[in-house]
Amino acid sequence: MTAPHPSLRLRLLAVTLVWTLLSVALAGWGIQRLFRQHIQAQLQSELNIHLNHLTASLQVDEQGQVSLSALPTDPRFGHPFSGLYWQISVPSDGTRFAQLLRSRSLWDAHLPAAAGDVEPGQDAVAQVSGPGGKPLQMRLREVHPAEGPIDTLILSVGADEALWAEPVSRFDRMLAVALGILALGMVAAAWMQVGFGLRPLGRLRERLAALREGRADRIEGEFPMEVQPLVEDFNLVLSRNAQGLERARMQAGNLAHALKTPLAVMANAAQAGDPALPRLVAEQVEAARRQVDYHLARARAAAAVRVTGLRSPILPLLQGLVRVMDRVHAERGLAYDLSGVPAELAFRGEAQDFQEMLGNVLDNAGKWARRRVRVTARRTDGELSIRVEDDGPGLSPERAEMVFERGRRADERTPGSGLGLGIVRDLADLYGGWARIEAGDLGGARVVITLPAA
Fold first, then answer.
1. Which end of the chain has fewer surrounding CB within 10 Å, N or C?
2. Among 71, 55, 81, 78, which residue's Cα sits nearest to residue 136?
3. CB 264 within 8 A of CB 287
4. Is 154 left (phi over 0), alpha (psi -120 to 50) or beta?
5. Where exactly are the structural domains of the chain?
6. What is the rounded average pLDDT of the residues 259-274?
7. With contact defined as beta carbons under 8 Å apart, do 277 and 270 qualify?
8. What are residue 439's DSSP bridge partners?
9. Crossing angle for the helix pair 314-328 and 351-368, to the nearest 10 degrees
10. Where would I find the Histidine kinase domain in this sequence (predicted)?
């Protein structure tokens, strides 16, 4: 049983959801932290303002009586246990404070502190337990009166933490609602974005279904630039497959047609009781074999063109072919020159196909050469250009094109089937190259073949 394939839509939505939740959570934590720091700083600033007011209003007479020229104006100082308190005290026994003045909001309580908590010239900030055991944020300042018997006074202002905790809590709730709505909106937007972004893939699936059901022979329509190259490559594969199928059908028909003649000759000879039947059978079998070899070579080359990574060095292959040609044309004493073939050149294809093409060309050159056959090769813009020329009589332009037709020969008096150069051109075409015959520098014909270089 095939495991279900993971959904691209769900994958994108999952990543978006995780990132959205993480981003919103981090943003909420950062905003909440900044707001808390702002409220705390605002509270300390307010306490510092009240402490400055107490300092400015403080009066001490010669008898040591402490008073304020003006009471703090905040009405919360006048309501018992309102959460905002002030106190003026002096150290007692060096460790505890003796209360002198206090706000009405303290009622019968006092603000605890120690003299050692306050450093001269600086305000001290402390968290203490205030009236009713509630936590307080307290700010203390040490003052040294210029007159009177009192050397040191401690001014204290305290505020219940609920004064800033409640706004923070209210802000947290509002922030959570706002960020929740934002997260839902971002998820909804991501859902619509993913749906809109994947819509071309849905259209592509519909086109593929039409292709599979035979309602179309290629994928039609415009797609986004990220998908269009895939569509074009797929259409190219379909086109090549269709061409390959058509070529296979044509080759099968050609092969069947080519085999009909030898079979018909042998059948007629057998029915007529021709005494030359053995010779006819041998000739027609050889003709059929050449046709089969021709079509097999085309089929092999067509398959090799689709294979990547093929690399066939050409110099060793040419040297092997020259050794064969030396034996085939041994009685003529021909000289084959390969000095113009660099050792590093390689053909991007099957070595057997290269031997098929160059073997036919070298054999043809050997038939017409007087004394010499020269082979040169070079690489230009990713292509191999191979030239095989002889010092024979050469060919006119009309006859040069005619010899590439299957079954046609430049001279009917020379032995051969007329398939050799036709195979060369067909194989070169299959590899995306070409073959032609032109006048050579040695006085004879020169066959030029271009093939893909490795």
1. N
2. 81
3. no
4. beta
5. 1-59+72-197, 228-304, 312-452
6. 65
7. yes
8. 445
9. 40
10. 254-454
Tokens encoding 434? 């070409």
**Longest pairwise C-alpha distance within the chain:** 162
**pLDDT of 375 over the 60 cut:** yes
- In tens, the pLDDT along 87-113 reads 988 866 544 446 688 899 888 888 876
Phi, psi of 119 (to 5 degrees): -95, 140
- In one-letter notation, the amino acid at residue 95 is T
CB atoms within 10 A of CB 54: 23
Name the residue among 324, 318, 304, 308 with its Cα closest to residue 377. Answer: 318
Query: What's the pLDDT score for residue 384?
Result: 93
pLDDT tens for each residue of 421-440: 777 888 888 888 989 888 88
Can you give the C-alpha Rg of the chain in angstroms? 51
C-alpha pair distances (Å), 337 with each of 332, 355, 375: 15, 17, 6
Question: Checking DSSP bridges between strand 383-390 and strand 346-347, what pairing results, if any?
Answer: unpaired
pTM greater than the 0.90 cutoff: no
Instruction: List, for residues 385-409, the tens digit of each pLDDT value.
Output: 999 999 988 887 777 777 766 544 4
Closest by alpha carbon to 287, among 310, 320, 312, 264? 264
